[in-house]
Amino acid sequence: MVRENNSYNESRFFIFQPIKLDKRLFESLVINRNLKCDNKQKESFLCEYESKFDSFLGVEDKSVNFLIDVNVSVLVANCFQDSWDLFPMGRYYKKDISKIYVKQNSHGYLTIIYDLIFRYDDTFLNSIIDDTEIIERFRSMFVSDVGKPKKAEILMAENKILDWIKKELLCLEIGKTELKIEENSGNILHLFISEANSSKREVQDYFIETSKNTERVLYQDSILEVSNTELYYTGGRIHLVMVKNDNEIYRFVPIHFYAQFLYNFLSRFFEYLENQFNIHLYNDEELLDNREKVTKLISSLSYLRIYNSLFMTKIEDDKHTVFDRIDYHWNLSNLLSTTDLYVKNLEMTLKNTYDLHQMKSSEKQSYLLYIISGLQIIGLIGVWTTVLGIIDGDTNKSSLIKFISELVDKLYLTYIIFVALVIFTIYFFYSYKKRKNIKRKNK
Known about the structure:
Layout: E1 9-18, E2 20-21, H1 23-31, H2 48-53, E3 64-67, H3 70-81, E4 99-104, E5 110-120, H4 122-128, H5 134-142, H6 152-169, E6 179-180, E7 187-193, H7 201-212, E8 223-224, E9 231-234, E10 238-243, H8 249-277, H9 284-289, H10 291-314, H11 318-330, H12 332-392, H13 399-410, H14 413-442
Helix pairs in contact: 3-6, 8-11, 8-12, 10-12, 12-13, 12-14
């Protein structure tokens, strides 16, 4: 039982819902970095925690945030209003200070961010203290699992958001399938703020248990010691931070967003590589046709690595206490290294393919030059014979010229041409064999 006091308790949920792009749009936004749209009615805003963090992702990022139409907020509020039996905390939803917006960063990554605030007293907290499934039911309203669709109002809200992104943000036609939200893809950060209760063991145990009940797999060593927090629990689907005031949350929201961004971005990046280039690995012509695309992929991933290093520098000690634990659970560093290795191998494959293509082109040119040389030899013999024939009628010719003229008269021109062709053929096959041996050594 929580002892009642005059302070309030706040549960603030950040839901990071990534948006999956189809292949064409992925190439446009991520590979070609075509982020522009001529719609001048768009207005971006800077979130409070972004400004306090001093650049959201640790670098001078050209990310923009767009507040969503009020009708979407109404749908979310109605969802809570109609679900008090499912999620009783919904009656304490503060729709006037909650926000729903779309974020697009300089990598082309798109995500819906719900910043939902619930404020309740100790009486309500005491009433739910035995309900350890409450956070799982909250998650099921926003995140679809296989065979378990999200709430209808949330689904309608997301469809409105996707249509808005297509029309207003990306200037695309409504109705096409460039964007979609996949099942089991949202991640939640739960910030519990209470001056009186955030440090109480009973309350901490309760929210840890509710968080664990959302997980498909339970992780070991999930409770972290983080400065200026009462409790920090990190899992796979939900993370819990318990603090006495909201000053510290501005440290953690960017970290959790970045982790979600990195996981989804690299997953989509690797998926694109698999679909786009595995089918071309044994097709030299098609791989060569994609040279420019591979170059842009390498550039994009190189920028991400620099971006990642700067971000880790920016978060300072939280890298070791918070991000490394998320990295351990989600395998982020290994995913980044594997994708980087894949791209480097792809670059090497492309280079070798290009070199082989150039070698083959050089061989074809050499063969053509051999043929031209043979024809020139034959032509030279014919010219020489004509010249000697003219000289033959000259009574003033020298003894050397007379000797050569008599020699040509005695030999048949056919024999001379035959000897020249034999020499040319031997030289041709010797050169071919030499090139073949060089090619074997290079393999």
